[in-house]
Amino acid sequence: MACHGDPATDFDGDNGGKPEGGILRFLRGDGSYSEFVHKARWGIPDTVMTRAAMGSPDSQNMIDVMLYLQELNENIETETFTISGMVSGLAGSGLILQNNGGDDLAIAADGSFTFATALDDGSAYLVTVKTQPASPNQTCSVANGSGTLSGSDVDNVSVTCVTKTYTVGGMVSGLAGSGLVLQNNGADDLAIAADGSFSFATPLDDGSAYAVTIKTQPSNPDQTCSVSNGSGTLAGTDISNIQIFCAEFWMNTVLNDAWYNPVTDGQGFFITCLLYTSDA
């Protein structure tokens, strides 16, 4: 079935030289025609093809019209457009983006990206993060990630990634003096006044190295503090197992051909030495 007829040539009536209607002819498969007068104005978007406007066609003519319009609708190709944007700050691996809950797109590095599947004009789009990057752990967020296609590609989606941070800390024991100062990576000074837990003020990016040292030993009384579990690399969690042990030593000597005992104040260590002198 095909439509034959042109309102500009099959003109029916006078409207100042402007086409207002005409004869539309539908050629059936058997070679016969179904035709009717098209009275509706051409070129007006909201024109309604009513039965009256078409010269009261019979049922068969109406069926021909409906079939023709269906054929037109099936043959119309909607224009498609792409969804794209930029990724910045990516340091880890494994980042995967999605559009409308599918069309997975793996991102390996900073730069531009485009989803493989184009969408019909007028379609909604929604860009989300399916899998956050790791090694180091990062959190990526999406800006300008949703909307409706309107006659052009979308290229302003922005994905920004930030590395997660973790704290470094532990426990101090045996502290009797004052003035103890710890450092992490040669900085971030942390004054310790008493036994208990500690945590450096500055968190570090995942994957960063840490090294806790003693900057200033305590005094009044003088003590020597040592660090255990003080260095390593952050791997997706806070560090809380660093141990600082402080001890005070003094010498109480008695020499009379007998035992010689230097002893700590009881905070951690007890050392016994034997000094033997002969009369010879």
Spatial separation of the terminal alpha carbons: 135 Å
In order across it, which strands form the biggest sheet?
8-5-13-11
> What summary fits the major beta sheet?
4 strands, mixed
Question: What characteristic shape results from the CA principal axes?
Answer: rod-shaped
Relevant terms:
single chain; 280 residues; mainly beta; 4-stranded mixed sheet; 4-stranded antiparallel sheet; 1 helix; 25 strands; 6% helix; rod-shaped; disordered N terminus; disordered C terminus
3D architecture notes:
With 280 residues, the protein is mainly beta. Helix content is 6%, strand content 43%. The strands form eight sheets. Strands 8-5-13-11 form a four-stranded mixed β-sheet, with no helix packed on it. A four-stranded antiparallel β-sheet has the order 7-6-10-12, with no helix packed on it. The longest helix is centred in the first third of the chain and has 17 residues, at 59-75. It is rod-shaped, with a radius of gyration of 42 Å. Residues 1-21, 38-48 and 250-280 have low confidence and may be disordered.
Describe how the helices and strands are arranged.
Elements: E1 2-4, E2 22-27, E3 33-38, H1 59-75, E4 80-81, E5 83-88, E6 95-99, E7 102-107, E8 111-114, E9 119-120, E10 124-131, E11 138-143, E12 146-148, E13 154-163, E14 165-166, E15 168-173, E16 180-184, E17 187-192, E18 196-199, E19 204-205, E20 209-216, E21 224-228, E22 231-233, E23 239-247, E24 249-250, E25 263-264
Parallel strand pairs: 5-13, 15-23
Antiparallel strand pairs: 1-2, 2-3, 4-9, 5-8, 6-7, 6-10, 10-12, 11-13, 14-19, 15-18, 16-17, 16-20, 20-22, 21-23, 24-25
